[in-house]
Design goal:
With about 270 residues, the chain is of the alpha+beta class. About 65% of the residues lie in helices and about 5% in strands.
Length: about 270
């Protein structure tokens, strides 16, 4: 996260010297603040998720309540996403304001033991504050890409002359190189954060639910269905929030995916069960 922030500030400095650095720092702080407070509302609205209470979804609510007690966490709000592709995600700025959401397809496709294992994974994300980390990382990476694109266009149309080295600017060549390399570095950092946190959530979630093999079975089922019927709504930019990537991906995309390979996750869980 520190490196992502530094990349953002470096681009601002290269574009506008000290003034650009301060503006970029202010923008980074503002975006992190916005992500902190509004990330849950944005993603829930994007997928038209609806909150449920114990009367509307008693079994689901009891599972989440039991897992929250095991993980020593406050009871999160529970949402159902009206899509038939089985998946789940957690969001919220901290454990006190956490949200756990499952798709309608997950409730109708997986067994109750598998659902509990999946929700254990999501509660691990809440406990480890991955919900905040992944959202801010995605925001910062997207902002770096946007700023780099603006810098390239400004250079092309003469908005940046590259003659402000005395003020701390990077020069025309430095701006071009930074605007190309920074988004790549930001993407790789975001992917590294996301993949690492998925492995940890698998491990900790299996501890919370007590059933690593049920989680392995659930991952296998959800991944197979996601390849057959990719999610038709939402944006791939938030695919890192789901327990498995809900969007279609080819061989190249899988190499740069937000999730570790499903088979490796399953192998780790099977080893954990042994």
């Amino acid at each position: 996260m520190a490196v992502l922030t530094v990349l953002f500030i470096l681009i601002g400095s290269a574009i506008g010297g000290q003034n650009g650095l301060f503006i970029a720092f202010f923008m980074a702080a503002l975006m992190n603040f916005g992500s902190y407070w509004f990330s849950d509302k944005i993603v829930l609205a994007m997928y038209k998720a609806e909150e449920v209470n114990p009367n509307e979804a008693p079994e689901l609510y009891r599972i989440v309540e039991r897992l929250a007690q095991r993980a020593n966490l406050p009871m999160p709000r529970v949402y159902i996403v009206p899509v038939e592709v089985p998946n789940a995600f957690a969001t919220g700025r901290n454990p006190k304001h956490a949200v756990v959401a499952v798709t309608q397809g997950m409730l109708s496709t997986l067994s109750m033991d598998e659902i509990e294992a999946v929700l254990g994974h999501e509660m691990a994300h809440v406990k480890n504050r991955d919900t905040l980390l992944s959202t801010v990382a995605a925001t910062m990476a997207g902002a770096i890409t946007m700023l780099a694109t603006m810098a390239r266009w400004a250079v092309m149309f003469g908005g940046l002359r590259g003659d402000d080295d005395e003020e701390g600017g990077g020069g025309i060549l430095g701006i071009i190189i930074l605007s190309i390399l920074a988004p790549i570095a930001a993407l790789l950092l975001q992917l590294a954060i996301s993949r690492a946190r998925e492995y940890v959530a698998d491990r900790d979630g299996a501890v919370i639910s007590g059933e690593p093999l049920f989680l392995a079975d659930a991952l296998r089922k959800m991944d197979a269905i996601a390849h057959q019927r990719p999610l038709a709504i939402g944006s791939p930019s938030v695919s890192n929030m789901f327990i498995v990537n809900p969007f279609s991906s080819g061989a190249i995309a899988s190499l740069l995916g937000t999730h570790p390979p499903i088979q490796k996750r399953i192998e780790r869980l099977e080893a954990m069960a042994r």
